[in-house]
From TrEMBL, chain A:
Component of the EKC/KEOPS complex composed of at least BUD32, CGI121, GON7, KAE1 and PCC1; the whole complex dimerizes. This is EKC/KEOPS complex subunit BUD32. One of its GO terms (molecular function) is protein serine/threonine kinase activity. NCBIfam families: arch_bud32. It is an enzyme of class 2 (transferase). Belongs to the protein kinase superfamily. BUD32 family. It comes from Marasmius oreades.
Automatic annotation (TrEMBL), chain B:
Substrate binds at Y151, V152, S153, G154, G155, D183, G198, E202, N298. It is an enzyme of class 2 (transferase). Residues 45-332 form the Gcp-like domain. This is N(6)-L-threonylcarbamoyladenine synthase.
Length: 261, 367
């Protein structure tokens, strides 16, 4: 049995997303359905040593539906890719979790534990009729929806400037971390599908994926996404024009395709 | 969104039984079916007749020839459909036809038949979105309540979830549809189109053993398939490729057979489909998956989806070829639902469209 497996066994299980599974040794902070990992892994909270700060373990367990060879190569390349892009983001000053351990063969990645709440939970349209609670959360984090959108746009722009493409931008994949006596910060998470690219095409598709996630998860969120783009534009500067026109192309693409047959 | 308290359905139980005729001809299948909605809310399929335009191996179906086929067979198929259901045209409440999406010429030839019948027998017309037809029939047959829908056919590849009276598209193909990808590869290796190229790929894949590396192209919840088709086609020019492998070939290590290519293509493409479906399930927190569309009858896809759903503690709903492959009954089902909500298509609006997105339809009959 590998060291990673021992670590997983000692940790506390949080949730199963679409692809990898996470370990909890400490008190459960998130209830199981609170933290949905959208790329399919089991997520755990664990500690490397008894007095170190907690880390998040992502275990891409073997997908039984996939051919074992295909599954093994995908797992290996995605774990390595995730670590690599996280590192690149960290170097470029993008807010992402720090890396704590990598075990690509066994599909385990350990990253810094982020205390906070996903953007998805903070935006309206998510909670089931519990509008009051949302307001409370926003107040508790001392942040307005507008400010969140601003942070989202800025953080994505920083990432794209470092030529990192997230590949799965959704509101579930962004966390808001409160900071005492200062504005909360936004952390991008879940780089399982991320890759490096300088192409305008890839950046535009990245934004398009987010736009679709916004519209399908948060009803009537067009103005919100508009302010994300506004903040993105500001940060991107001269690169924005090309991305903007490509984004318009990409939007048409899905539409064009869908209706043959 | 799922998880919300279920509101009561806007569709009221009817005071009398309703009957609808559905006519489908958006691609190479011409279908006619009659559905009955009884007063107690149950529905039954009275007949479901289909005739497929089959082209020789290596050839696809051209719009013009397909339209000719539909025109030639329309009377026969509709007569059979009425005979089997044992109803007369006068008993019908409405005539439903596919408004789109699909190939223009075949769509038009069937719409023309629908218009003619409507005028002859003085029956109202209901234009139906083909994709919504698939989803509604799948829900009706399997009893799935609020599933994530994977719609995979020769012309469409979409991951869909219902929200606020609309079937929203979460993910889709960015280029060609999965059925198109499989069919075109069947043409490359000369598999027959009878009963369908996809079926023959599936049978061939069962004999395959080697998994050859192919691109794996998921982009968020979208996928891209055209590059995979080019890549798998490129293997047929490989020196190790044997179009008609003999026994001695199979003992050599590095030989590539058509069966291996079918196997690799299916494994890779279906893994991508299952992955984006799983991602949609995780994203919206649903445990049910419904597979509809022609590729949905592929048993390997159903099997992979089933394994994924079980890993998540969920369930897969799928139907057999009668309802998966394009048919008239699904058009009747979706059309009758909207008819009962008061929807009619006036004669001047009974045009067809090749581009008609799933999310453009107002799903008035669901809460």
């Amino acid at each position: 049995m590998s060291a990673s497996q021992n670590l997983i066994d000692s940790a506390l299980f949080i949730s199963q997303g679409a692809e990898a599974a996470s370990i909890f040794l400490l008190p459960v902070i998130f209830s199981p359905d609170n933290d949905i990992d959208s790329i399919g892994q089991k997520v755990y909270k664990a500690q490397l040593t008894s007095n170190s700060s907690p880390i998040l373990l992502k275990h891409r367990f073997q997908k039984q539906y996939r051919h074992p060879t295909l599954d093994a190569s995908l797992t290996r390349s995605r774990i390595a890719g995730e670590a690599r892009t996280l590192l690149r983001c960290l170097r470029a000053g993008v807010n992402v979790p720090g890396i704590r351990m990598v075990d690509a063969t066994n599909g385990v990645l350990g990253i810094q534990w982020i205390e906070g709440e996903s953007v998805r939970k903070l935006l309206p349209g998510e909670a089931e009729g519990e509008d009051n609670e949302e307001v409370d959360l926003l107040q508790e984090y001392g942040i307005s929806i507008d400010e969140i959108m601003n942070l989202v746009g800025t953080e994505i722009a920083k990432m794209h400037k470092a030529d990192v493409i997230h590949g799965d931008l959704t509101t579930s994949n962004m966390m808001i971390r409160p900071i005492k006596s200062s504005q909360a910060e936004l952390i991008l998470i879940d780089f399982g599908l991320a890759f490096q690219s300088t192409l305008t095409e890839d950046k535009a598709v990245d934004l398009y994926v987010l736009e679709r996630a916004f519209l399908s998860t948060h009803p009537d969120s067009e103005p919100m996404f508009a302010s994300v783009l506004a903040a993105y534009e500001q940060r991107m500067g001269n690169d924005w024009a090309a991305i903007k026109s490509r984004l318009d192309d990409v939007r048409l693409r899905g539409r064009k395709r869908s209706m043959v047959g | 969104m799922p998880g919300k308290l279920r509101k009561s359905s806007p569709l009221k139980n009817s005071d009398r039984p309703y009957l609808a005729l559905g006519l489908e001809g958006s691609a190479n299948k011409l279908g006619a079916g009659i559905i009955k909605h009884a007063g107690d809310g149950s529905s039954s399929v009275l007949s479901n007749v289909r005739h497929t335009y089959i082209t020789p191996p290596g050839e696809g179906f051209q719009p013009k020839d397909t339209a000719t086929h539909h025109r030639e067979w329309a009377m026969k198929v509709i007569e059979d459909c009425l005979d089997q259901a044992d109803v007369s045209m006068h008993d019908l409440d409405c005539i439903c036809f596919t408004k789109g999406p699909g190939m223009g010429a075949p769509l038009q030839s069937v719409a023309l038949v629908a218009r003619t019948l409507s005028l002859l027998f003085d029956k109202p017309l209901v234009g139906v979105n083909h994709c919504v037809g698939h989803i509604e029939m799948g829900r009706e047959i399997t009893g799935a309540q609020n599933p994530v829908v994977l719609y995979v056919s020769g012309g469409n590849t979409q991951v869909i979830a219902y929200s606020r009276q609309c079937y929203r598209i979460f993910g889709e193909t960015l280029d060609i549809a999965v059925g198109n990808c499989l069919d075109r590869f069947a043409r490359v290796i000369g598999l027959p189109n009878d009963p369908s190229p996809g079926y023959n790929i599936e049978q061939e894949a069962k004999k395959g053993k080697r998994l050859l590396p192919l691109p794996y192209a998921t982009k968020g919840m979208d996928i891209s398939l055209s590059g995979i088709l080019s890549c798998v086609e490129a293997y047929t020019y490989d020196k190790a490729f044997r179009p008609n492998p003999i026994l001695a070939d199979l003992e050599v290590e590095n030989v590539i057979t058509p069966a291996d290519l079918c196997f690799s293509l299916q494994e890779t493409v279906f893994a991508m489909l299952v992955e984006i479906t799983e991602r949609a399930m995780a994203h919206i927190g649903s445990k049910e998956v419904l597979i509809v569309g022609g590729v949905g009858c592929n048993e390997r896809l159903q099997e992979m989806m089933d394994v994924m759903a079980q890993e998540r503690g969920g369930q897969v709903f799928a139907t057999d070829e009668r309802f998966c492959i394009d048919n008239g009954i699904m058009i009747a089902q979706a059309g009758l639902l909207s008819y009962r909500m008061g929807f009619r298509t006036p004669l001047v609006k009974t045009t067809c469209t090749q581009r008609f997105r799933t999310d453009q339809v107002h799903i008035a009959w669901r809460a």
